[in-house]
Amino acid sequence: MSYQSFLSQDEVDALLAGVTGEGAENTSKELPSSGVRPYDLASPERVIRHRMQTLELINERFARRLRSTMLSFMRRNADITVGTIKVQKYSDFERNLPVPSNLNMVNLKPLRGISLFTFDPSLVFLIIDSLFGGHGRYSTRVEGRDFTITEQRIIQRLLTHTLENYCEAWENVYKLEYEYVRSEMHTKFASISSGNDLVVVTSFNIEFGAQGGNLNICLPYSMIEPVRDLLTRPLQDTSSSAIDQRWTQQLTRQVRSADVELVADFQKIHTSISSLMQLQVGDVLPIDIPERIFAHVDGVPIMECQYGTSNGHMALRVQKVLTYTEPDFRKVNLHDRTSE
Known about the structure:
Shape: elongated
CATH topology of the largest domain: Chemotaxis protein chec
CATH superfamily of the largest domain: CheC-like
Oligomer: single chain
Strand content: 15-25%
Number of strands: 11
Structural class: alpha+beta
Order of helices and strands: HHHEEHEEHHEEEHHHEHEEEH
Distance between the termini: 69 Å
Number of helices: 11
CATH class of the largest domain: Alpha Beta
Radius of gyration: 38 Å
Number of domains: 2
């Protein structure tokens, strides 16, 4: 079978022109200029199509916990606004940071890699000024100097509270433990990833009155990729499960205090309706005296007892408590049931 049965003459001419190089220029001109662009599958700029709904819930929990921590730490109410989750290059994140900043490198075990928690200098000096009795109305210049020892201690306390609250916000999704690595003021000394690698960034705007700044949490995408399925699953608020658990515990307590009627049948006699209708006053019904009798609750045997008297009253002595296992209906053979 010849190639003419598969290709037309125009297609053969186009292939020959491509081999000789004559049609390369024409081919590039024929491509539409709009809507088509080259894409490198090996590029780190992967398209992340799913919303990280669970991570959004974690950020909201973290903001609520941090708000209450700020109140106890500074005796001032903080207004914390959660920003949107951004997936961007690490170089773009570095470029947008104010210089200098408080950059804290932290391990979040068991996740692999190093995360970055950054505080804007305006936020740092606002907190320091407030702790020393100020109102945060005067800006402090930080260019050309490092933080003092006192300022570093306050920042370390603030970072500790922040990391504790962040790990607590993750607790119901994936248990994390933080490990502080070091702090820097310039991004060139706090590089947690290469410039082209993707990072997941969330900004929290913290304001005290009219002043404030941002807390940024930068997680390398390679760090959270192993738990990506947990972060992109449909939004589930575990508060409802906590309510269900409390309801179950309350129901259990109420069931335990419910009143039940315990019935002990001494003996049963099997007879026919005709014999029952012929009974007269004074007739004697022969019975066999049992050695054991069963006590029932709502018709269900609960315990095996021995009857007798105690302090002049009829009484039961428990010999055995009956237990039951739940039936496994999956083992029922429908064919055997129908054959019966």
